[in-house]
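Margin note from the TA: students keep mixing up input and output lines. Inputs are the sequences; the output is the structure of the whole complex. Example:
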Amino acid sequence: MKEALSGKTAIVTGASSGIGYETAAALAGAGAAVVIQARRADRLEKLASQIVSGGGRVLVAAGDASKPADIDSLMERALDWTEGGAKVDIVVANAGRGLAGGILGSDESAWREIFELNVLGAAHLMRIAGKYMVERKGGDIVALGSVVGRNVSPFSGFYGSSKFAVGAIAEGLRREVCAQGVRVSLVMPGIVLSGFQDVAGYNEENFGKTTAQFGKLLDPQDIARGILWLLSLPAHVHVSEITIRPTGQNYP
Ligand SMILES: NC(=O)c1ccc[n+]([C@@H]2O[C@H](COP(=O)([O-])OP(=O)(O)OC[C@H]3O[C@@H](n4cnc5c(N)ncnc54)[C@H](OP(=O)(O)O)[C@@H]3O)[C@@H](O)[C@H]2O)c1
C-alpha cells in the first residue's frame, strides 16, 4: 500500500524534542522525506539515525528558529536536498517555548525571546513557506498554537499571548493562500508532557497541582498522530484547526 506521504518532503522545526521529534518521526514513517531543525544537533542526529534505520530519508539542518537568516537557510537547504527537482510540500512550524506565570509573575527577561521564537520566527517561516507554496499552487503549513492561545489562563498569560498571535497569523495566512491550494492548519494542544515543562519553569507548585486533576496527560505522539491525520486528508479537504487535550483537561 502506498504510504500517505510518500514522495513528499516536510520541514519540521523544533525536532530535537517532544512534539517536533515525534512529528518528524511520524511523517517519515508515513513516507515523507524530512528536514529537521533545532539548536541541539546531537539530538537531531539521534532522530536521524532512528529514521534511517526505519528506512526513511532525513536531512539534519541544525539552526535557530528565531533567527530569520537560519530560517531562510533551512528552506534553502531543504530545496537543495530534494531529489528529482527541488520541492517542499509540508512545513511544520513547531519550535517554541513556554513560560511559567502570568503577566505579573512571569520572568520578564524571557518575554522578548518568547516573541522572537514563538511569533516572529514562526511567522517568518510561514511567510517564506507561503510564498513558495503559492507559486507551486499547493502545500501544507502546520503551526503549533495552544489551548492557551484560545482561552488564556492566569498561569500562562504571556506565553498564551504569543500563541494567540500564532493563531491569528495562521488564520490570516490561510485566508491569503487557500485559493492557491495551500492549506494552513493550526494545531492547539492541551497539556503534553515533553521538554516544555522544564524550559518553561513549571514545577509542582505552578503545574503539578493544577494538572493533577486532569488524569493522564498527553504524550507528544498523541499530537503527532493528529498532525499526520490532517496532512493525510485529500487535497480538497482542509481541517484548518484542531484542539487536542487530555480527556480530563477541563481548563483551559
Ligand atoms: N507541551 C505542551 O504542553 C504544549 C502545549 C501547547 C503547545 N505546545 C507547543 O508545541 C511546540 C513544541 O513544544 P514541545 O511540547 O514539544 O516542547 P519541547 O519538548 O521543549 O520541544 C521544543 C522544541 O523546540 C526547539 N526550540 C526551542 N527554541 C528553539 C530555537 N530558538 N531554535 C530552534 N528550535 C528551538 C527545541 O530544540 P532545541 O532546544 O534543541 O533548539 C525543541 O526541539 C511549541 O511551540 C509549544 O509552544 C506545547
